[in-house]
Known about the structure:
Layout (H helix, E strand, L loop, with lengths): L4 E2 L3 H6 L4 H18 L3 E4 L3 E4 L2 E4 L5 E4 L2 E5 L4 E5 L7 H7 L3 E2 L3 E4 L7 H18 L2
Antiparallel strand pairs: 1-2, 2-3, 3-6, 4-5, 6-7, 7-9, 8-9
Helix pairs in contact: 2-4, 3-4
Amino acid sequence: MKTTPNDKSVTKFLKSVENDKRRADGQEVLKLFEEVTGMEPRMWGDSIVGFGSYHYTYASGREGDWMLTGFSPRKQSLTLYIMDGFDEYDKLLAKLGKHKLGKSCLYINKLEDVDQDVLKQLIQKSVEHMQKTNP
Length: 135
């Protein structure tokens, strides 16, 4: 797996984001994640800012470590990683604002498109769930 935690600089990475708006949103989301999680950010691979980690084991026996939550200011959108998925978050998502979903990815075009208080709740609930189910 090439997306592993490393000692690359989160600050340097965010400053290197080409799109001005995406770079500014990345800086704001960094503060938001730090506030909500109380954890230090760490680079995972070359383009993901992650917070915390947990250990997983698949039924096949394959195992590894992954971040509890994180984000990446990608070209197409600001991508937030909500590791437990979205099945339990219908009410929050209905109040969030403009977004798209993947399996564990929340895609936001611009940070001002969403309610940041709702976003904080979503991140917090996800981290709490992951910590409870992956001690």
